[in-house]
Amino acid sequence: MGWNKTLAAGPLLVAALFVASASFAEPYVFPDAWTDTPARIAKYGGVLRYPMLGFPRTFNPLVSVEENLVVAMNVASDLGAATLAWIRPDDGMLEPRAARSWNVSPDGLTIDVELRSGLTWSDGTPITSADYVTSYELQVNPDTNTAGPHAWLIGDQLITVEATGARSLRITLPAADRVSATYVGGLYPLPDHIFGHAFRTGGADAVTQLWGTDTPPDQLVFSGFMALTGADWEERLTFERNPYFGHWNVDTEGRPLPYVDGVTFSFHQGDAALNLFLAGQLDFLRPRNLDDIGAINDAVANHGLDAFVAESIYPVSSTFFLTFNWNLASDPFKQQLFRSRDFRRAVSHLIDRQTLVDLVHSGAGYALQGPVHPSDTFWFHPSSAFADYDPQEAARLLTGLGFDRRDASGYLIDAEGRRPAFRITYSAGQVLAEGPAQVLADVLREAGIDVSLDPVAFPLLVDLIQADGHDRPFEAVIIGVTPGDPAWPFFEALYDCGGAIHVFNRSGECLTSAELLIADLVRRGRTTLDHEAAQALAHEIQDLMAELAPLVYLSVPAAHYVSSGRIGGALPRELWSPDAGTGYMFMYSVR
């Protein structure tokens, strides 16, 4: 038995993932219903070829807060990492992966888990309960984990994880909540013989220094379907099959997964990636817009390209926003400006989101009004006081801040001749940030705000927004964040004043009463099991976010799927969704 994460599944129970004792076959068998290439015809061999934005910032799961493929091989269930559970693509059920069975106490707060046999790190070391306990203990230790213990806290009490045997765990919840099932199910192992040893001998500093990007690949271990074998800063990441993954993951014919020998991620984006795909040198592409789709369709129709194209399949799940740095002590004028609610709302009022959708996404996108996507009809609050496009209101707010005249260059100034000015930093080459940044700069300059653009390498961008203290080294950024759980869409690390991705204020304390109240409501909503009461809290959070405007939400594109015709193994089209995606790499095969 599993747990359906949709609200239609009925009342949420304590540890709803573990609603009953359960036992499952081992190894894990992936059904033919989850692939367009049945096991009987899937072939072994070949390499999958993907484009990628750039080199990762770290290989260490504990200090990574960004999308990171090397880290994902150890933490992401859709890449085969040995998480205790994962979400089925067909019915949204959260079911065991590395767990083989569980038993639940009568009150639902204690879960005894037995691990599958055959779980093995890519270096041949068995994965045991000690690896899960090490992962848990380092995640909740604030000195070793950038993300902090928010996921493991219910109220002010920790969920606990302890080993009861070499292949068994006991998980204890202090109380009921809406999302702990996901966090418990998503618990991934960390190699105790590496991370646990480092902590026992060198403490937190030793752990955070592990697995930097200068670590030789043969010193890394992986639980997912691939292991890193090559890392070239200039060109690509190279992965080869984890020889032990197939010990506990098989197809319906009992054959070990994955089918492919390896995966390469080359550092190409934009036109370079498109041209490589058109030349048959990439197997997958994330189109920037409908113009890219048109070029691919033309190559298929007129130039013999063998490719599959699906347009606008669902909204990209991330939310993208512009946010300002409230911690800029070296420039008191700008710090005061960025902390001004009226200034942030004025900027928001100057942004026509539909124009962003049209210009950046060729019309195939969605305007955002706040932290909840409008397609999430249960949580979305359509009546929040969102600062939508209204240039007249923007002008009124800017005038109220003293910017009531213009200089010789046409920019607004106050009585002391100071301009409302800021620099937007974003990830160079990332179209989902680069396109909006360019449009925003033009629109805001026309309105009299002096905006400059600062594209930087993605690892540097992450370092900038992760900086703590009262004088952080940026003015404004455009970034994307994946929303929270479907059962509660507010990720505490984004809203808590001490959260790892509380991007606008990392001073260590809340600077406004609204900021403090939002953080409190997010925590309360997590432990509110009644759907309607939780919905009311979600609407209140959206009202406060709209009023405070700490994050100026922009737009997201529709996702498009493009692959080479030589690749099989994607999910059947009827199973595609923002949660499940379009397929699992470990199920792909080269025809």
TL;DR of this structure?
Among the domains are: 3-29 and 80-208, Dipeptide-binding Protein, Domain 1 (Dipeptide-binding Protein, domain 1, Alpha-Beta Complex); 319-557, Roll (Dipeptide-binding Protein, domain 3).
Q: What's the CATH architecture of the domain at 319-557?
A: Roll
Main β-sheet, spatial strand arrangement: 2-7-8-12-11
Molecular shape: globular
Over all CA atoms, what is the radius of gyration? 24 Å
Number of H- or I-type helical stretches: 15
Low-confidence sequence ranges: 1-20
Tell me the major beta sheet: 5 strands, antiparallel
Which class of secondary structure composition applies to the elements? Answer: alpha+beta
What do we call the CATH homologous superfamily of the domain at 319-557?
Dipeptide-binding Protein, Domain 3
List the keywords.
single chain; alpha+beta; Dipeptide-binding Protein, domain 1; five-stranded antiparallel β-sheet; 29 strands; globular; disordered N terminus
